[in-house]
Amino acid sequence: MKAAAEFPEIVQANDLPPPSFFNRHAKSIAAIAALAVFAVVGYAVYRLTEEVSYADVLRALETTSPTSIALAIFFTALSFVTLCFYDLNALSFIGQTLALDPEAGIPLTKQFCTPEGRWRQDDLWPHTG
Questions:
Q1: What percent of the chain has pLDDT over 70?
Q2: Rounded to an integer, what distance in angstroms lies between the CA atom of residue 112 and that of residue 114?
């Protein structure tokens, strides 16, 4: 058995240094950064779409063959199906299964949020009454 002197000192809460500015304001800084990124992206989209008019879009659609439009829709749908299989492969890699929970009413990506892979609806929207 070790003597009491051999154990490291227990750090008390009042012995810790005060949290840094960034630790104290992390949520506010993240919110401001997210708003700044959103504003920059919004401005970029605005500038990019300035040179496109509704008439140009209609003219381009009229000159595009129905076969090209159908192929574009088909390959877009195919990419979404491929993305689903990519997600299933990722679940398989980490040893999880996809359990459908129709009562929860939240997206299937909730499977990654808890070790059990399941949330109750009350976990997200607690009753106040």
A1: 63
A2: 6
Query: How confident is the model at residue 25, as a pLDDT?
Result: 87
Q: Categorize the per-residue pLDDT at 60 as very low, low, confident or very high, splitting at 50, 70 and 90.
A: very high
Contact 108, 100 (CB under 8 A): yes
Answer yes or no: are the C-beta atoms of 113 and 119 closer than 8 Å.
yes
Which residues, at least 6 apart from 101, have a Cβ–Cβ distance to it below 8 Å?
Answer: 118
Give which of 115, 81, 83 is closest to 96, Cα–Cα: 115
Q: What's the CA gap between 119 and 99, in Å, rounded?
A: 11
CA distances from 83 to 35, 88, 93 (A): 29, 9, 15
Question: Count of CB atoms within 10 A of residue 10's CB?
Answer: 6
Distance CA 61, CA 65 (A): 8
pTM confidence score? 0.43
Query: What span, in angstroms and rounded, lies between the C-alpha atoms of 19 and 121?
Result: 34
C-alpha radius of gyration, the chain, whole number: 26
How far CA 125 is from CA of 2, 113, 114, in Å, comes to 50, 16, 16
